[in-house]
Amino acid sequence: MQQHLKIFNAQAITPHRMIRNATIVVTDGIISYVGDKNMEIDDAYEIDAQGKYVSPGFIDIHLHGGGGGDFMDGDVNAFLAIAETHARYGMTAMCPTTLTSEKEGLLETLKIYEKADKLNTKGAQFIGMHLEGPYFALSQRGAQDPKYIRDPNPEEYQEIVASSSVIKRWSAAPELNGAIEFGRYMRSNGILPAIAHTDAVYDDVIKAFEAGYTLATHFYSSMSGVTRRNCFRHAGVIESGYLIDEMDIEMIADGVHLPAELLKLIYKIKGSDRVALITDAMRGAGMPPGDSVIGNLHTGLKVIIEDGVAKLPDRSSFAGSIATADRLVRNVIQMAEVPLTEAVKMMTSTPARIMGVDDKKGSLFPGKDADLVIFDENITIETTIIKGNIIYQRAGSLSTGKPAEAVSLE
Questions:
Q1: Were 352 and a residue from 179, 248, 317, 358 both cysteine, which residue would form a disulfide, CB within 3.0 to 4.6 Å?
Q2: What is the pTM of this model?
Q3: Which CATH superfamily is domain 58-354 in?
Q4: In what helix (H) or strand (E) does residue 81 lie, and over which residues does it extend?
Q5: Sequence-distant contacts of 103-108: CB under 8 A, at least 24 apart
Q6: Phi then psi for 134, rounded to 5 degrees?
Q7: How many percent of the chain have pLDDT more than 70?
Q8: pLDDT > 90: percent of the chain
Q9: CATH annotation of 4-56+364-393
């Protein structure tokens, strides 16, 4: 017997327009109708959206943790806690992300991912692992542990890729010895290489882009700008990201990593089709301020959570954000004056395209997974739905029941 979910009295954010007084119908976890006809459906579970917005579920392609857990903890329960924490803030899909580590730590994390993925029924779905490092420029390490940073080693990364099919992206510094070959190898194995923690200049970036590095990881953070070499100025990764129209970029819109003027500049130049909002969240997301750890709970780097961000103990550098997806969308609307529909695109269809899952996720379209979020004008999350299942609903937020007037779809 088919299972139906019906959301009515909504403002639906589709890829092309806002539908007022919209109805969304879900059949067996798949979107079957989006439009302005409020049809009667027998035995459907109904949600009256009360005029609130319904959008595709938020997708984060770069985060490390939340709810007190980190993906490097080596614990299935940490994976599950992170997924459940972020689902409360509208996230329906994510790319769990590592930090620089020994090879054994990466291999173990991949195994934990595979176990957790089978048990993850109450949180945001895992859509592939993101390995961030260890092939970085030491000078741009940020909060990455310097003792693990090294140049790409073919024997090492080929073994890691061969060990698991869940790796979907890998961030590296393209100017390192062997980094171009690394990028080509990733692409040949269906893995997206991304530019990160780098001192590359324009010539390096062009070569990297041609080798498959089509994404710039956390734009502006731990990457080069204009620099001098032998008296001559060179464009860095930041300028290269602007100059290469086809380059996708990530933006940490937590309101701390990037000020309003840079959020505006990025959006003005790149547009919503090339910008993916990311939390880059560590274990402190959804947790109170105070002492914390980035990376493995027992061996990771100690950090301080204050001012809405994680910092190194000497406060010399940020150490990851504590943002949630709703905060990102809210900030680009309020700080960067981005229209709601464009802000949602940067948290849904754009990251879905970048990660190659846009055939199933990222937009309100019949035939796609019923990953949905209901929220108000302040981006307060009312309900999170994953494949037609209500994962989170704010207490007393929305009513259910039969609509007063229904029309036939015929």
A1: 358
A2: 0.95
A3: Metal-dependent hydrolases (3.20.20.140)
A4: helix 76-87
A5: 103/156, 103/159, 103/160, 105/72, 105/74, 105/296, 106/131, 106/160, 107/160, 107/163, 107/164, 108/74
A6: -95, 15
A7: 96
A8: 84
A9: 2.30.40.10
